[in-house]
Amino acid sequence: MKRLQKLAMAAASASIFALSATVEAQAQSVLRDVEIEEFLNDYSRPVFRAAGIPADEIDILIIGDQTFNAFAGGLVMGVNTGLITISDTPAQIQGVIAHEAGHIAGGHSARSDEMLASATRPMLLSLVLAAGAIAAGAPDAGIGILGLGQTVGIANALKYSRGQESSADQAALTYLNAVGRSGNGLIESFQKMRNDQLIHGGRINPYMQSHPLAVQRITALEERAAASPYFDVKDSPEEIARLRMIQAKIRGFMQDVNSTLRQYPLSDQSEPALYARAVAYYRSADIERALKEIDRLLVAHPDNPYFNELKGQMLFEFGRVAESIEPHRRSVELAPGKALLLINHARALAATEDAGKVAESIMVLKSALLLEADNSFGWFELARAYGALDNEAMANLAMAEARYHEGAKPDAAQFATRARASFKKGTAEWRQATDIIVASLGSDPSAGRGRGRDDDRPAPEPRRKPDEVPDPQYAPQFH
Fold first, then answer.
1. Mind spelling out the 3-state secondary structure of the chain?
2. Of 15, 161, 218, 343, which has the most beta carbons under 10 Å away?
């Protein structure tokens, strides 16, 4: 997965598909999990292609927030974990994804300057008129004019935002129809919003909302959605079962452990319950119960890479490193080409402190970093592995990459400078270190007057800028 840039700006400028404006702000983190990422990719990439946007260039974030929410801006889409756990069907999630794709295709975040202009004009006019009234000896009237101008400006901006929302709603139906999916999932999501708005209805001013009221959105969509030949298409039992497993996993990791065990009591012997309890027991340090539950899933599904991954992480985190290697290796075999699974496998190999296995871990980490060259955690683990083999130069180079992709440019330059001193000039490693120095400092101090390379050597390729948001949370399972 590509790294994400300017997430905060995207979240602020993009339209947010929100259940309720009354939900209190919660601490958020960007999560990584292969199973959830694959689920979202399966339901989003066809929609992106139908929308005519570059499907493989859209970064999809999993936001650790249990509110029913999503956002889009630029080439970034964020999906709250709450959108997944609160939805009843995959169609509801896909409907929201299609709505957000409508914002991306419509360039709505790029047009935020138009929205600001619509708000600013009446505000500026009110300042002029208010100043005139005050100068004429009518201060009360001046203050009233000023307040009116601000109110009108805000209302204009919100009206502009509501127009973008309606446009994205209609675009979503077009995309869903193009991929042969029902628009009823989107309508059902709005029905969830409507129920919440009915509870708070006495406090809602429809003219001071950034989004149209849910009941208005449902009315605007129902007739067109019902006319689609795919309106009655339902999610298959297999799709529903897949969602239930992912919901159980998220709840196991994000809810209070006791809440999870109440929601999935021992009397519930379904596979989602086994999954949720495995995670809950793991989080509560009851490793034997956790292994018992995940082993039951593995007996039924030995070729599930995510069950193998979870078992490997359980064993690794509780110090049973040698035992963790095989389930991690199995997860990589069953789901090849997944950087996070490769990094987990490499960590287990390196933790044995066996020189042969540490060397193997380096090869595995290099494979992972070919897939995700800006994965700072992968570079950090590579630095540790090189350090374990007393290869200080390569450890410094890997740490320079890790710090660069974390956004710590001064540190990156320092590690790269140390590394470069150990490499022969002109080698690939020397050029890599020089590239980091130039990208971090803007010039190479050792090359005089800003030249970070030999005059006869081509300039290095521009490096991707480090993220301007916190690095994804690397916690058990949610990487």
1. CCCCCCHHHHHHHCCEEECCCCCCCCCCCEECCHHHHHHHHHHHHHHHHHCCCCHHHCEEEEECCCCCEEEEECCEEEEEHHHHHHCCCHHHHHHHHHHHHHHHHCCCHHHHHHHHHHHHHHHHHHHHHHHHHHHCCCHHHHHHHHHHHHHHHHHHHHHHHHHHHHHHHHHHHHHHHHCCCCCHHHHHHHHHHHHHHHHCHHHCCHHHCCCCCHHHHHHHHHHHHHCCCCCCCCCCHHHHHHHHHHHHHHHHHHCCHHHHHHHCCCCCCCHHHHHHHHHHHHHCCCHHHHHHHHHHHHHHCCCCHHHHHHHHHHHHHCCCHHHHHHHHHHHHHHCCCCHHHHHHHHHHHHHCCCHHHHHHHHHHHHHHHHHCCCCHHHHHHHHHHHHHCCCHHHHHHHHHHHHHHCCCHHHHHHHHHHHHCCCCCCCHHHHHHHHHHHHHHCCCHHHCCCCCCCCCCCCCCCCCCCCCCCCCECCCCCC
2. 343
Give φ, ψ of 294 to 5 degrees: -70, -30
The strand pair at 59-63 and 76-80 is best described as parallel
Say how far apart CA 211 and CA 219 lie, in whole Å: 14
State the Cα–Cα distance between residues 239 and 368, nearest whole angstrom: 29
- Asked if the model's pLDDT at residue 181 lies above 50, the reply is yes
Place of tokens 């004429």: 136
Q: Confidence class of residue 129 from pLDDT cuts 50, 70 and 90?
A: low
- pTM higher than 0.85: no
Q: Are 60 and 41 in contact (CB under 8 A)?
A: yes
Question: Pick the residue with more confidence: 25 or 138?
Answer: 138
Q: How far apart are CA 342 and CA 255, in angstroms?
A: 27
Phi, psi angles (nearest 5°) of residue 79: -125, 115
Q: Return d(Cα 149, Cα 126) in angstroms, integer.
A: 5
**8 Å CB contact between 444 and 385:** no
- The dihedral formed by the CA atoms of 32, 169, 47 and 109, expressed in degrees to the nearest 10: -60
Domain boundaries, the chain: 1-235, 333-479
Residue pair 80/102 in contact (Cβ under 8 Å)? The answer is: no
Closest residue by Cα to residue 81 from 371, 368, 475: 475
Distances (CA, A) of 192 to 70, 86, 165, 465: 14, 9, 17, 39
